[in-house]
Automatic annotation (TrEMBL):
Subcellular location: Cell membrane
SUPFAM superfamilies found in the cross-reference section: MFS general substrate transporter
One CC-aspect GO term: plasma membrane
Domain Major facilitator superfamily (MFS) profile: 10-410
Main location group: membrane
Protein name per UniProt: MFS transporter
Topology versus the membrane: Multi-pass membrane protein
Keywords recorded for this protein, A-Z: Membrane, Transmembrane, Transmembrane helix
Taxonomy of the source species: Bacteria, Bacillati, Actinomycetota, Actinomycetes, Micromonosporales
Organism domain of life: Bacteria
Protein backbone atom coordinates (compact mmCIF):
# COMPACT_ATOMS: atom_id res chain seq x y z
CA UNK A 1 0.00 0.00 0.00
CA UNK A 2 1.52 3.30 -1.08
CA UNK A 3 1.13 6.44 0.97
CA UNK A 4 0.32 9.60 -0.98
CA UNK A 5 2.52 12.61 -0.30
CA UNK A 6 0.56 15.39 1.36
CA UNK A 7 0.19 18.40 -1.00
CA UNK A 8 1.62 20.67 1.70
CA UNK A 9 5.09 19.30 0.95
CA UNK A 10 4.77 20.16 -2.76
CA UNK A 11 3.64 23.69 -1.88
CA UNK A 12 6.63 24.02 0.46
CA UNK A 13 8.99 22.77 -2.27
CA UNK A 14 7.67 25.31 -4.81
CA UNK A 15 7.90 28.09 -2.22
CA UNK A 16 11.52 27.07 -1.56
CA UNK A 17 12.40 27.27 -5.27
CA UNK A 18 10.69 30.67 -5.54
CA UNK A 19 12.66 31.99 -2.58
CA UNK A 20 15.91 30.73 -4.13
CA UNK A 21 15.02 32.32 -7.47
CA UNK A 22 14.43 35.72 -5.87
CA UNK A 23 17.46 35.49 -3.58
CA UNK A 24 19.98 36.50 -6.23
CA UNK A 25 19.49 40.15 -5.49
CA UNK A 26 20.25 39.62 -1.82
CA UNK A 27 23.81 38.71 -2.89
CA UNK A 28 24.14 41.48 -5.48
CA UNK A 29 25.00 44.60 -3.42
CA UNK A 30 27.97 42.97 -1.71
CA UNK A 31 29.75 42.28 -5.03
CA UNK A 32 28.71 45.49 -6.81
CA UNK A 33 29.67 48.19 -4.29
CA UNK A 34 33.25 48.32 -5.57
CA UNK A 35 32.53 48.15 -9.32
CA UNK A 36 29.82 50.83 -9.14
CA UNK A 37 32.13 53.06 -7.11
CA UNK A 38 34.89 52.58 -9.68
CA UNK A 39 32.76 53.10 -12.80
CA UNK A 40 30.55 55.99 -11.72
CA UNK A 41 32.61 57.57 -8.94
CA UNK A 42 29.70 57.37 -6.50
CA UNK A 43 30.71 57.26 -2.83
CA UNK A 44 30.10 54.14 -0.78
CA UNK A 45 27.66 56.20 1.27
CA UNK A 46 25.60 57.00 -1.85
CA UNK A 47 25.56 53.38 -3.03
CA UNK A 48 24.77 52.19 0.51
CA UNK A 49 21.83 54.62 0.57
CA UNK A 50 20.33 52.79 -2.42
CA UNK A 51 20.79 49.51 -0.55
CA UNK A 52 19.11 51.09 2.47
CA UNK A 53 16.05 52.10 0.43
CA UNK A 54 15.84 48.51 -0.76
CA UNK A 55 16.10 47.18 2.78
CA UNK A 56 13.44 49.56 4.09
CA UNK A 57 10.95 48.70 1.34
CA UNK A 58 11.86 45.03 1.65
CA UNK A 59 10.64 45.23 5.23
CA UNK A 60 7.73 47.65 4.94
CA UNK A 61 6.23 45.73 2.01
CA UNK A 62 6.11 42.46 3.97
CA UNK A 63 3.02 43.06 6.16
CA UNK A 64 1.05 44.47 3.21
CA UNK A 65 2.13 41.50 1.10
CA UNK A 66 0.89 39.13 3.81
CA UNK A 67 -2.47 40.93 3.77
CA UNK A 68 -2.52 40.85 -0.04
CA UNK A 69 -1.95 37.09 0.07
CA UNK A 70 -5.04 36.83 2.26
CA UNK A 71 -6.99 38.96 -0.21
CA UNK A 72 -5.76 37.79 -3.63
CA UNK A 73 -3.90 34.54 -2.94
CA UNK A 74 -0.28 33.52 -2.57
CA UNK A 75 0.21 32.56 -6.22
CA UNK A 76 -0.76 35.93 -7.71
CA UNK A 77 1.27 37.96 -5.23
CA UNK A 78 4.42 35.83 -5.61
CA UNK A 79 4.19 35.88 -9.42
CA UNK A 80 3.89 39.68 -9.45
CA UNK A 81 6.80 39.92 -7.00
CA UNK A 82 9.13 37.82 -9.18
CA UNK A 83 8.28 39.91 -12.26
CA UNK A 84 9.02 43.10 -10.32
CA UNK A 85 12.41 41.78 -9.17
CA UNK A 86 13.29 40.83 -12.74
CA UNK A 87 12.31 44.28 -14.04
CA UNK A 88 14.21 46.16 -11.35
CA UNK A 89 17.40 44.15 -11.76
CA UNK A 90 17.28 44.14 -15.57
CA UNK A 91 16.75 47.89 -15.95
CA UNK A 92 19.88 48.66 -13.90
CA UNK A 93 22.06 47.93 -16.95
CA UNK A 94 20.85 51.20 -18.50
CA UNK A 95 21.37 53.49 -15.51
CA UNK A 96 23.72 56.47 -15.64
CA UNK A 97 22.85 58.38 -12.44
CA UNK A 98 22.66 57.54 -8.75
CA UNK A 99 18.92 58.33 -8.55
CA UNK A 100 18.33 55.57 -11.10
CA UNK A 101 20.22 53.17 -8.85
CA UNK A 102 17.89 54.12 -6.01
CA UNK A 103 14.84 53.65 -8.24
CA UNK A 104 15.91 50.23 -9.59
CA UNK A 105 17.80 48.69 -6.68
CA UNK A 106 15.88 50.50 -3.99
CA UNK A 107 12.28 50.84 -5.08
CA UNK A 108 11.52 48.16 -7.68
CA UNK A 109 13.61 45.34 -6.27
CA UNK A 110 12.72 46.38 -2.72
CA UNK A 111 9.01 46.05 -3.44
CA UNK A 112 9.46 42.74 -5.29
CA UNK A 113 11.68 41.01 -2.76
CA UNK A 114 9.64 42.46 0.12
CA UNK A 115 6.56 40.72 -1.25
CA UNK A 116 8.48 37.44 -0.95
CA UNK A 117 10.06 38.17 2.40
CA UNK A 118 9.71 36.10 5.53
CA UNK A 119 6.04 37.04 5.88
CA UNK A 120 5.58 34.83 2.82
CA UNK A 121 7.23 31.99 4.75
CA UNK A 122 4.99 32.65 7.75
CA UNK A 123 1.89 32.64 5.51
CA UNK A 124 2.76 29.35 3.79
CA UNK A 125 3.64 27.52 7.01
CA UNK A 126 0.67 28.99 8.88
CA UNK A 127 -1.82 27.84 6.23
CA UNK A 128 -0.35 24.50 5.19
CA UNK A 129 1.27 23.04 8.32
CA UNK A 130 0.31 22.31 11.89
CA UNK A 131 2.74 19.47 12.49
CA UNK A 132 6.40 20.20 11.58
CA UNK A 133 5.65 23.91 11.26
CA UNK A 134 8.90 24.99 12.92
CA UNK A 135 11.00 22.66 10.79
CA UNK A 136 9.38 23.81 7.54
CA UNK A 137 9.80 27.44 8.58
CA UNK A 138 13.50 26.74 9.02
CA UNK A 139 13.80 25.03 5.64
CA UNK A 140 11.98 27.81 3.76
CA UNK A 141 13.97 30.49 5.55
CA UNK A 142 17.08 28.65 4.43
CA UNK A 143 15.87 29.15 0.84
CA UNK A 144 17.23 32.67 0.95
CA UNK A 145 20.55 31.39 2.22
CA UNK A 146 20.61 28.75 -0.49
CA UNK A 147 20.04 31.48 -3.05
CA UNK A 148 22.96 33.41 -1.64
CA UNK A 149 25.09 30.26 -1.76
CA UNK A 150 24.15 29.62 -5.40
CA UNK A 151 24.45 33.19 -6.64
CA UNK A 152 27.23 34.87 -4.66
CA UNK A 153 30.27 33.08 -6.14
CA UNK A 154 28.71 33.24 -9.62
CA UNK A 155 27.93 36.95 -9.31
CA UNK A 156 31.40 37.68 -7.94
CA UNK A 157 32.98 35.87 -10.91
CA UNK A 158 30.67 37.52 -13.44
CA UNK A 159 31.31 40.96 -11.96
CA UNK A 160 35.08 40.46 -12.11
CA UNK A 161 35.15 38.78 -15.54
CA UNK A 162 32.18 40.21 -17.46
CA UNK A 163 31.21 43.29 -15.51
CA UNK A 164 28.42 44.11 -13.09
CA UNK A 165 25.80 44.36 -15.87
CA UNK A 166 26.13 40.66 -16.64
CA UNK A 167 25.52 39.88 -12.98
CA UNK A 168 22.40 42.07 -12.92
CA UNK A 169 20.99 40.28 -15.97
CA UNK A 170 21.60 36.86 -14.38
CA UNK A 171 19.58 37.96 -11.33
CA UNK A 172 16.74 39.13 -13.59
CA UNK A 173 16.78 35.88 -15.56
CA UNK A 174 16.73 33.69 -12.46
CA UNK A 175 13.65 35.47 -11.12
CA UNK A 176 11.85 35.10 -14.46
CA UNK A 177 12.73 31.41 -14.68
CA UNK A 178 10.78 30.61 -11.52
CA UNK A 179 7.54 32.34 -12.60
CA UNK A 180 6.06 29.43 -14.64
CA UNK A 181 6.60 26.95 -11.81
CA UNK A 182 4.97 29.26 -9.25
CA UNK A 183 1.93 29.89 -11.45
CA UNK A 184 1.55 26.20 -12.24
CA UNK A 185 2.03 24.53 -8.85
CA UNK A 186 1.75 27.02 -5.96
CA UNK A 187 -1.64 26.80 -4.29
CA UNK A 188 -3.22 29.24 -1.86
CA UNK A 189 -4.96 27.05 0.75
CA UNK A 190 -5.38 23.34 1.57
CA UNK A 191 -9.14 23.65 1.01
CA UNK A 192 -8.43 24.48 -2.66
CA UNK A 193 -7.25 20.87 -3.07
CA UNK A 194 -9.82 19.34 -0.74
CA UNK A 195 -7.33 18.55 2.04
CA UNK A 196 -6.55 19.83 5.52
CA UNK A 197 -3.22 21.34 6.65
CA UNK A 198 -0.51 18.78 7.34
CA UNK A 199 -1.07 17.43 10.83
CA UNK A 200 -4.59 18.90 11.20
CA UNK A 201 -7.94 17.14 11.27
CA UNK A 202 -9.92 20.09 9.90
CA UNK A 203 -9.38 23.35 8.07
CA UNK A 204 -9.27 26.45 10.30
CA UNK A 205 -11.68 29.28 9.49
CA UNK A 206 -10.33 31.75 6.98
CA UNK A 207 -9.43 35.23 8.15
CA UNK A 208 -11.78 37.95 6.89
CA UNK A 209 -10.68 39.16 3.45
CA UNK A 210 -10.93 42.90 3.97
CA UNK A 211 -8.98 45.71 2.39
CA UNK A 212 -5.35 44.57 2.48
CA UNK A 213 -3.93 47.94 3.51
CA UNK A 214 -6.50 48.30 6.29
CA UNK A 215 -5.81 44.79 7.59
CA UNK A 216 -2.06 45.40 7.61
CA UNK A 217 -2.29 48.79 9.33
CA UNK A 218 -4.83 47.53 11.86
CA UNK A 219 -2.51 44.62 12.56
CA UNK A 220 0.25 47.07 13.47
CA UNK A 221 -1.99 49.29 15.60
CA UNK A 222 -3.37 46.36 17.58
CA UNK A 223 -0.06 44.59 18.05
CA UNK A 224 1.66 47.83 19.05
CA UNK A 225 -0.52 47.90 22.17
CA UNK A 226 1.20 44.76 23.47
CA UNK A 227 4.56 44.40 25.16
CA UNK A 228 5.77 41.31 23.20
CA UNK A 229 5.53 43.19 19.90
CA UNK A 230 8.05 45.83 20.95
CA UNK A 231 10.44 43.28 22.41
CA UNK A 232 10.26 41.13 19.29
CA UNK A 233 10.51 44.11 16.93
CA UNK A 234 13.43 45.60 18.85
CA UNK A 235 15.36 42.34 18.83
CA UNK A 236 14.62 41.71 15.17
CA UNK A 237 15.67 45.25 14.20
CA UNK A 238 19.07 44.47 15.73
CA UNK A 239 19.04 41.13 13.91
CA UNK A 240 18.71 42.98 10.60
CA UNK A 241 21.39 45.48 11.52
CA UNK A 242 23.89 42.73 12.31
CA UNK A 243 23.17 40.54 9.25
CA UNK A 244 21.85 42.09 6.00
CA UNK A 245 22.73 45.65 6.94
CA UNK A 246 26.31 45.21 8.13
CA UNK A 247 27.80 41.82 7.31
CA UNK A 248 25.78 41.16 4.15
CA UNK A 249 26.51 44.59 2.68
CA UNK A 250 29.95 45.50 4.03
CA UNK A 251 31.87 42.29 4.77
CA UNK A 252 33.39 42.09 1.27
CA UNK A 253 34.60 45.73 1.11
CA UNK A 254 35.85 45.46 4.71
CA UNK A 255 37.85 42.34 3.86
CA UNK A 256 39.15 44.06 0.73
CA UNK A 257 40.39 46.93 2.92
CA UNK A 258 42.70 44.38 4.57
CA UNK A 259 44.07 43.14 1.23
CA UNK A 260 41.76 40.17 0.66
CA UNK A 261 40.67 39.55 -2.93
CA UNK A 262 37.00 40.28 -3.62
CA UNK A 263 36.38 36.77 -4.96
CA UNK A 264 37.89 35.27 -1.78
CA UNK A 265 35.72 37.46 0.43
CA UNK A 266 32.66 36.57 -1.67
CA UNK A 267 33.50 32.90 -1.21
CA UNK A 268 33.58 33.39 2.57
CA UNK A 269 30.21 35.13 2.50
CA UNK A 270 28.85 32.25 0.41
CA UNK A 271 30.06 29.87 3.13
CA UNK A 272 27.93 31.86 5.55
CA UNK A 273 25.01 30.95 3.31
CA UNK A 274 26.00 27.28 3.32
CA UNK A 275 26.14 27.01 7.09
CA UNK A 276 23.06 29.20 7.40
CA UNK A 277 21.07 26.44 5.70
CA UNK A 278 22.12 23.94 8.35
CA UNK A 279 21.69 26.44 11.19
CA UNK A 280 18.23 27.57 10.16
CA UNK A 281 16.90 24.06 9.63
CA UNK A 282 18.35 23.02 12.99
CA UNK A 283 16.77 26.09 14.57
CA UNK A 284 13.40 25.12 13.10
CA UNK A 285 13.78 21.65 14.60
CA UNK A 286 14.70 23.15 17.98
CA UNK A 287 11.78 25.59 17.80
CA UNK A 288 9.39 22.63 17.83
CA UNK A 289 11.04 21.44 21.07
CA UNK A 290 12.66 24.31 23.03
CA UNK A 291 11.28 27.60 24.39
CA UNK A 292 11.71 30.13 21.57
CA UNK A 293 12.60 32.89 24.04
CA UNK A 294 15.62 30.96 25.26
CA UNK A 295 16.71 30.17 21.70
CA UNK A 296 16.63 33.85 20.72
CA UNK A 297 18.59 34.86 23.82
CA UNK A 298 21.33 32.35 23.03
CA UNK A 299 21.46 33.22 19.31
CA UNK A 300 21.81 36.96 19.86
CA UNK A 301 24.38 36.62 22.64
CA UNK A 302 26.59 34.39 20.50
CA UNK A 303 26.29 36.77 17.57
CA UNK A 304 27.27 39.78 19.66
CA UNK A 305 30.39 38.13 21.04
CA UNK A 306 31.49 36.97 17.59
CA UNK A 307 31.15 40.48 16.12
CA UNK A 308 33.28 41.95 18.88
CA UNK A 309 36.20 39.72 17.89
CA UNK A 310 35.73 39.97 14.10
CA UNK A 311 37.96 43.06 13.53
CA UNK A 312 40.98 41.11 14.79
CA UNK A 313 40.36 38.30 12.27
CA UNK A 314 40.70 40.22 8.99
CA UNK A 315 43.87 39.60 6.96
CA UNK A 316 45.00 39.22 3.35
CA UNK A 317 43.99 35.55 3.26
CA UNK A 318 41.31 33.41 4.90
CA UNK A 319 42.99 32.32 8.13
CA UNK A 320 41.59 29.43 10.24
CA UNK A 321 40.27 31.89 12.83
CA UNK A 322 38.24 33.66 10.13
CA UNK A 323 36.86 30.33 8.93
CA UNK A 324 35.73 29.56 12.49
CA UNK A 325 33.90 32.90 12.55
CA UNK A 326 32.28 32.18 9.17
CA UNK A 327 31.03 28.77 10.32
CA UNK A 328 29.63 30.15 13.58
CA UNK A 329 28.08 33.23 12.01
CA UNK A 330 26.56 31.15 9.26
CA UNK A 331 24.90 28.81 11.74
CA UNK A 332 23.50 31.84 13.58
CA UNK A 333 22.65 34.07 10.56
CA UNK A 334 18.86 33.66 10.36
CA UNK A 335 18.45 30.98 12.99
CA UNK A 336 16.43 33.71 14.73
CA UNK A 337 13.57 33.44 12.21
CA UNK A 338 11.81 30.17 13.23
CA UNK A 339 11.52 31.10 16.94
CA UNK A 340 10.42 34.65 16.05
CA UNK A 341 7.69 33.34 13.71
CA UNK A 342 6.61 30.87 16.40
CA UNK A 343 6.36 33.63 19.03
CA UNK A 344 4.31 35.85 16.72
CA UNK A 345 1.87 33.00 16.21
CA UNK A 346 1.85 32.22 19.95
CA UNK A 347 1.03 35.80 20.91
CA UNK A 348 -1.17 36.84 17.96
CA UNK A 349 -2.85 33.68 16.71
CA UNK A 350 -4.13 33.46 13.12
CA UNK A 351 -2.96 37.02 12.38
CA UNK A 352 0.57 36.07 13.36
CA UNK A 353 1.80 36.29 9.75
CA UNK A 354 0.67 39.92 9.40
CA UNK A 355 2.18 40.84 12.77
CA UNK A 356 5.38 39.03 11.85
CA UNK A 357 5.40 41.14 8.69
CA UNK A 358 5.67 44.24 10.89
CA UNK A 359 8.30 42.63 13.08
CA UNK A 360 10.20 41.85 9.89
CA UNK A 361 9.76 45.48 8.80
CA UNK A 362 11.64 46.44 11.96
CA UNK A 363 14.33 43.93 10.93
CA UNK A 364 14.78 45.72 7.62
CA UNK A 365 14.71 49.19 9.14
CA UNK A 366 17.55 48.08 11.38
CA UNK A 367 19.36 46.69 8.36
CA UNK A 368 18.89 49.94 6.43
CA UNK A 369 20.23 52.07 9.25
CA UNK A 370 23.24 49.78 9.65
CA UNK A 371 23.98 49.70 5.91
CA UNK A 372 24.03 53.50 5.68
CA UNK A 373 25.78 54.04 9.00
CA UNK A 374 28.55 51.54 8.25
CA UNK A 375 29.15 53.16 4.84
CA UNK A 376 29.36 56.57 6.52
CA UNK A 377 31.75 55.24 9.17
CA UNK A 378 34.00 53.85 6.43
CA UNK A 379 33.89 57.11 4.44
CA UNK A 380 34.68 59.28 7.49
CA UNK A 381 37.13 57.14 9.48
CA UNK A 382 38.71 55.01 6.78
CA UNK A 383 37.77 51.64 8.28
CA UNK A 384 34.84 49.68 9.73
CA UNK A 385 36.20 49.10 13.26
CA UNK A 386 33.54 51.00 15.21
CA UNK A 387 30.77 49.57 13.04
CA UNK A 388 31.71 46.04 14.14
CA UNK A 389 31.98 47.02 17.81
CA UNK A 390 28.66 48.84 17.78
CA UNK A 391 26.89 45.91 16.14
CA UNK A 392 28.32 43.48 18.71
CA UNK A 393 27.01 45.60 21.58
CA UNK A 394 23.57 45.84 19.97
CA UNK A 395 23.34 42.07 19.55
CA UNK A 396 23.95 41.62 23.28
CA UNK A 397 21.08 44.04 23.94
CA UNK A 398 18.85 41.95 21.64
CA UNK A 399 19.64 38.91 23.79
CA UNK A 400 18.36 40.76 26.86
CA UNK A 401 15.19 41.85 25.03
CA UNK A 402 14.44 38.26 23.99
CA UNK A 403 14.89 36.86 27.47
CA UNK A 404 12.54 39.57 28.78
CA UNK A 405 9.63 38.02 26.82
CA UNK A 406 7.14 36.15 29.01
CA UNK A 407 5.14 33.06 28.07
CA UNK A 408 1.65 33.92 26.89
CA UNK A 409 -1.01 33.56 29.54
CA UNK A 410 -4.01 31.52 28.41
CA UNK A 411 -6.80 34.10 28.26
CA UNK A 412 -10.14 33.68 29.94
CA UNK A 413 -13.13 33.32 27.66
CA UNK A 414 -14.00 36.61 26.08
CA UNK A 415 -13.97 38.53 22.86
CA UNK A 416 -10.77 38.67 20.92
CA UNK A 417 -8.99 41.97 20.52
CA UNK A 418 -10.22 44.00 17.57
CA UNK A 419 -9.05 43.60 14.03
CA UNK A 420 -6.32 41.03 14.02
CA UNK A 421 -7.41 38.25 16.33
CA UNK A 422 -4.90 38.85 19.12
CA UNK A 423 -4.24 35.92 21.39
CA UNK A 424 -5.26 38.11 24.36
CA UNK A 425 -8.70 39.31 25.38
CA UNK A 426 -9.32 42.90 24.35
CA UNK A 427 -9.04 44.18 27.92
CA UNK A 428 -5.79 42.35 28.46
CA UNK A 429 -3.98 43.73 25.44
CA UNK A 430 -2.23 46.38 27.49
CA UNK A 431 -2.56 45.38 31.11
CA UNK A 432 -1.86 41.63 31.19
CA UNK A 433 1.59 40.78 32.50
CA UNK A 434 2.32 38.71 29.44
CA UNK A 435 1.24 41.37 26.99
Amino acid sequence: MTRRLHPAWLVAAVAFVALVGAAGFRATPAVMLGPLHTEFGWSLGTISAAVSVNLVLYGLTAPFAAALMDRFGIRRVVTAALLTVAAGSGVTVFMTASWQLILCWGVLVGLGTGSMALAFVATVTGRWFVKRRGLVTGVLTAGGAAGQLVFLPLLAWLTADRGWRAAALVVAGSALAVVPLVWWRLRDRPADLGVTPYGATENPPEAPRGNAARVAVRGLLDAARTRPFWLLAGGFAICGATTNGLVGTHFIPAAHDHGMAQTTAAGLLALVGLFDIAGTIASGWLTDRVDSRVLLGVYYAGRGLSLLVLPALFSQSAQPSMLVFIVFYGLDWVATVPPTVALCREYYGERGAVVFGWVFAAHQLGAAVAATAAGAVRDQLGDYLYAWYGAGALALIASVLSLALRPRRTPAAGPAGPGIGLAYPAAASVSAPGS
